[in-house]
Design a protein that fits this description.
single chain; nine-stranded mixed sheet; 24% strand; alpha/beta; Aminopeptidase; 10 helices; six-stranded antiparallel sheet; globular
């Protein structure tokens, strides 16, 4: 069989076009509802319950066809459809992540300088810092008060009556700034969000501008300055996900990485019916900073969920049964790949690059330079995945993340593989990855869903 990369829009039927466009509507809604990992979990629970899924903890026993979900500390999510085969024969896992590069507020963020009020930030994940200046920004997250009350915050989005910004230097005074390397002409410590310029009238406080912001926060949310110390507030782009291009063939949005794989993962699982092998959708946090912590892929959450499933399906919930299940399981590590961009052709190796609108990109390995930080999937697994995708008519191609020694990156694949699971990377090729406005092709988003559905339904 000849290997060829084919653009999915070429000779696409009207039926396929309609399916692609219809699927993108739900995805855009998911993006707009979930700008943080907590919001994505909330949206996932809402979709799961609407599809008839129930909390795993509510079941004493499970049988084939049962649909369950579990939440990991508000930032991780797993859902499963119980298969016909015993779990000790293995399960099918699709794992993706729901955190995205952003700016986090520091724990003591509010200050004033020269009659303006600002919030200090600490960037999260790999960003180009200059891309975050002079664009409208929103504040999303939670504040947990000392009494345990949790306040959800979403302020500054497109359509709201306010927004926020990180200022930049005018070009007329930018000669020294522009002579610096791109990675340093905006310093991380200068990513300060402008939130006010009005003093508190009648105040004797020597910091009247900061005091006015605190007054407004107290009036709106009944919080004080110390409440910032137990808050998780994220600065995200204020604009919404939108169709991109005159042909509406693409979606421009913040957070495609990796919600562009997480939504098809979730939808494929929710649509699964009576699979042979138990099908499991895993949504994790912290991938952009190394997958550590008790909500990242290095945590024990996946093992705990599988043990809970084993115990409720009649298998022994012991170390031997767990390890047999993991050893016989397959996992698709669903994360984005870099789409070939002709404007920056020099960093790509064209024969082995992800291509927009050519379907899901399968990466036998990721990592950097000498495959450092990679899970290098075995050829046997690659053959199984090829077979699953080809038999289901999934549009796919292989991809690497740019030229050897040009850079690189990793996914959660290595951490799932560490558990003994045969794991391979695949996902949507993307332009402008890690920017505030990433670009994905609608055809690829749909083919991603189709691929995960075929994987969950494998025989």
């Amino acid at each position: 069989m000849k290997y060829e990369i084919k653009n999915g829009w070429t000779d696409a039927s009207e039926e396929l076009k309609k399916a692609v466009y219809d699927f993108s509507v739900g995805y855009v809604d998911f993006l707009n509802k979930g700008k943080t990992e907590r919001e994505c979990v909330d949206a996932a629970v809402e979709l799961a319950e609407a599809a008839g899924f129930k909390p795993l903890s509510s079941f004493a026993g499970l049988k084939a066809g049962d649909k369950v979900y579990a939440v990991n500390k508000h930032k991780g999510f797993a859902a499963a459809v119980i298969g016909k085969k015993p779990m000790t024969e293995g399960i099918g896992i699709v794992g993706s992540h729901i955190d995205s590069p952003r700016l986090d507020l520091k724990q003591n963020p509010l200050y004033e300088a020269d009659e303006m009020a600002f919030l200090k930030t600490h960037y999260y994940g790999g960003i180009k810092k200059y891309q975050w200046t002079a664009i409208p920004l929103a504040i999303h997250g939670v504040i947990v008060k000392q009494n345990g009350e949790t306040l959800k915050i979403a302020l500054g989005d497109e359509g709201d009556d306010v927004t926020f910004v990180i200022t930049d230097l005018l070009p007329h005074l930018g000669n020294s700034q522009m002579s610096k390397p791109a990675h340093s002409f905006i310093e991380g410590e200068n990513l300060n969000v402008l939130v006010g310029s009005m003093p508190l009238g009648g105040s004797e406080d020597d910091k009247k501008f900061k005091a006015n912001i605190l007054r407004l926060l107290e009036e709106k949310y009944a919080i004080d300055e110390e409440d910032f110390t137990s808050a998780e507030l994220e600065i995200v782009p204020a604009f919404k996900a939108k169709d991109l291009g005159l042909d509406r063939s693409m979606i421009g949005a913040y957070g495609h990485d990796d919600r562009v794989c997480s939504y098809p993962n979730l939808r494929a699982l929710l649509d699964a019916e009576a699979p042979e092998y138990t099908a499991l959708c895993l949504l994790t946090d912290k991938e952009e900073v190394g997958s550590m912590g008790n909500t990242g892929a290095k945590s024990r959450f996946l093992e705990l969920v599988i043990l809970e499933l084993l115990s409720r399906t009649g298998s022994s919930a012991d170390a031997l049964s767990l390890n047999r299940c993991l050893d016989r399981s397959l996992c698709l590590s669903a994360d984005v790949s870099a789409a070939y961009d002709p404007n920056f052709a020099s960093v790509y190796e064209k024969n082995n690059s992800g291509r927009m609108n050519c379907g899901i990109a399968v990466s036998k390995y990721t990592g950097s330079r000498g495959k450092g930080g990679s899970n290098d999937a075995p050829a046997e697994l690659m053959a199984k995945v090829r077979k699953i995708f080809n038999e289901a008519g999934v549009l796919w191609h292989t991809a690497e993340l740019g030229k050897v020694d040009e850079g690189g990156g990793g996914t959660i694949a290595q951490f799932v593989a560490d558990l003994g699971v045969d794991t391979i990377d695949c996902g949507v090729p993307m332009l402008s990855m890690h920017s505030p406005f990433e670009v994905a092709g609608k055809m690829d988003v749909y083919q991603c869903y189709k691929a995960f559905s075929a994987f969950f339904d494998r025989k």
